[in-house]
Amino acid sequence: MEDLEQFAIEVPQATLDDLAERLARTRWPAELDGPGWEDGTSPAFLRELVGRWRTGFDWRAQEAAINRFPQFRATVDGIGLHFVHVRGKGPAPLPLVYTHGWPSSFYELLPLVGLLTDPTSHGGDPTDAFDVVIPSLPGYGFSDPLPGRGNSARIPGQWARLMTQVLGYTRFAAHGGDLGAYVTNRLGYEFPEQVLGIHVTMVAEADLGPGAAPPSDAERVFLAERVAGQEDRRRLQPHAADPPPDPGLRAVRLPGGTGRLDSRQVAGVERLRRRPLAPLHQGPAVDHGDPVLGDRHDRVVVPDLPGLGAEHGRPS
Fold it and tell me: How many helices (H) and strands (E) does the chain have?
């Protein structure tokens, strides 16, 4: 473990200018009959989204708001990891590592920081305070990517070493959703001496590896239903079944494709929930206890894809 340092986001202006130019050069395809979502992303919605991204979205304001949170980078297993670390306000805050999912980033979790670290200010009990650690998954945001395939299995070990060897906690709790739930489940499974408990918003993956007990009848039914559910998701969101490099390459070359990928992801979730999409403009900012975040459609996490790494920030 080495190179622990404070970090602040500082995207070069040349990067933002390049993004604006590429958005302005978007070549729009001919529209099919009807403005809806039946044949993919709504062209009208995407045009509005790209226009707002190019001329109405203030990245510098978001950058400054994010930088109000204490951020750091540390080298763990040779990989530079970016994370937010906010100490709790209470007699004995419980350390909590909070892992985001895909497609997402640490930014989406920032509204919860004030609630978890300072419950007294929100009508809670100070004994319920947490020390909150929100890492960027490797290859996301400002963390370096892990080389090779199957690298998600390496993340729980990195989290355990970040919490214990870098930050000095002897025991800690963990929460995650989506891909973060996979990391959290494995973290509790692999490091029971360090992990006090886990909370996830996605059912744990079955351990069917060498030495595992054979699944019960109920588990077999669950696994079969899960496969069917995944196929439904791929049908509604075919980009989720693309080989991993393909969406990233398309998004880097064509930033408008980033908006298409993200809007289709939202649309697929909304269809599964059987409720209409919210309008682009969602109203005034909500006070989450921290001076950050406007409406939910302003949560453009980084100005380009893929993970930006340390070159888009600076030691602080």
Answer: 9, 8
Residue type, 84: V
**Element (DSSP H or E) covering residue 200:** strand 195-200
Cα 144 from Cα 308, distance rounded (Å): 8
d(Cα 69, Cα 107) in Å, to the nearest integer? 10
Helix axes 255-272, 43-55, angle to 10 degrees: 130
Contacts of 227 (CB under 8 A, 6+ apart): none
Given pLDDT bands bounded at 50, 70 and 90, which one contains residue 27?
confident
Q: Is the model more confident about 304 or about 209?
A: 209
Q: Could you write out the three-class secondary structure of 47-58?
A: HHHHHHHHHCCC
CATH of 2-205+218-315, one of 3.10.580.10, 3.30.1130.10, 2.30.180.10, 3.40.50.1820: 3.40.50.1820
Please state the separation of Cα 313 from the chain's center in Å.
18
CA distance 141 to 34: 36
Q: How far is CA 210 from the centre of its chain?
A: 31
